[in-house]
Specification:
Length: 142
């Protein structure tokens, strides 16, 4: 399966951070992992996992990381300031993809501004054109 946002996200990551938002269960994690699969030295950290959360808070990912995926970052208190600091001091090769649900969509209403530092992509449920043909035997089953 190929989501139409995939090449757009890859393109935008070369310029700024990308926020991938949308309702639950629409494929944000799948899409983030698809981007990671095309990038050497990628790291997926889910802030619901305490070990991953510690890595984010202490910023102890490997220096050679090229793609940093931060899932559920909005669940960390002060996440906007944390992300702003990470982005403003990151090495040139580091690309940052942040995933989250509706709460991440509404962050612009208050607090520190991340203006000019990110592109937002909203992922919706599958469109009819994205659903594989059940008679096509070359399509991997979901």
């Amino acid at each position: 399966m190929n989501r139409p946002q995939l090449p757009l996200i890859r393109h935008d990551l070369k310029k700024k951070m990308v926020f991938l938002t949308g309702p639950r269960q629409v494929g944000k994690t799948w899409l983030a992992r698809a981007v990671a699969g095309d990038t050497h030295d990628s790291l997926y950290l889910n802030c619901d996992n305490f070990q991953d959360r510690a890595i984010v808070l202490e910023q102890t990912w490997l220096p050679g990381t090229r793609l940093l995926i931060l899932a559920e970052l909005h669940k960390i208190s002060g996440w906007k300031n944390l992300l702003k600091g990470i982005y403003d001091t990151k090495p040139d090769q580091l690309q940052i993809l942040v995933t989250g649900s509706a709460r991440l969509d509404t962050f612009r209403q208050s607090g520190d501004s991340l203006a000019g530092r990110f592109f937002r992509h909203r992922l919706n449920p599958l469109a009819l054109s994205e659903i594989p043909d059940p008679d096509d035997t070359t399509v991997e089953r979901l």
